[in-house]
Amino acid sequence: MDDVIPDLHNLAPIYLFLLIAGGQVGLPIIAFTYVFSKRISRCSTIINYCVTWIIYSVVYSLYFYGGGRKASQQLCVVQASLIQGAPPMAVVASLSVVISTWSTFHWQDHDHPFIDRIPRPLWFFMILAPPYIVLFMFSLAFGLFNIGKGLARPTNGLYCSIWLEPDSMIKLLVPSFCAAIMIVIVFFEIAITVQYYRRWNKIKRAFPLVDRKSSTTLVFRIGLFCLYSWASLSAVVFFL
């Protein structure tokens, strides 16, 4: 076993503050604003993205919600299994966002009679359900793997995880999956950037006398999301 793990229990207040303030207070406010505000266009993938990160923060808080060091072994097993599914869920939700954005640009430039015939409920299921399916599959797989082995235990005093041998190939499953999805996300981001640039040039050529400026807020949001993607990809490569 990898026993050289620092005890970070003294950082629990900061750890919980970040999880609760960001994931369980801030993100619900953003999600409810998207849902109920009449001044903001409702983007289902963005709302879904917020929901997945709310779930992510709750998953990483379960150990303390269950009493911290007094938490039951059953709760520890549940959290350890869910923690294996939470990162894949979040990264697949990010993929849904970029696919939705890419399709918005792409469909406006091309005719897709087959895609147009997809029922709207089915399309919403195809774009919104995958994060939760991935969460269920990874959590179930690691939960079944842990049965009878007693591998779930508190890690560094902040949460429970499944302890594996340092050379276990199973440890690579989650970061490998996340890295593969992040690479796909980066390719879609490049495609979105190219499409946006082409459309912007087309508009300028069609209306040369009109003074048009690109949206600063849009560029900022796209840049921020790309920065998050590259940082996440670097993180999962580091774990690999």
From TrEMBL:
Keywords annotated in UniProt: Membrane, Transmembrane, Transmembrane helix
Transmembrane segments: 12-34, 46-65, 85-102, 122-145, 172-197, 218-239
UniProt protein name: G-protein coupled receptors family 2 profile 2 domain-containing protein
Source species of the chain: Serpula lacrymans var. lacrymans (strain S7.3)
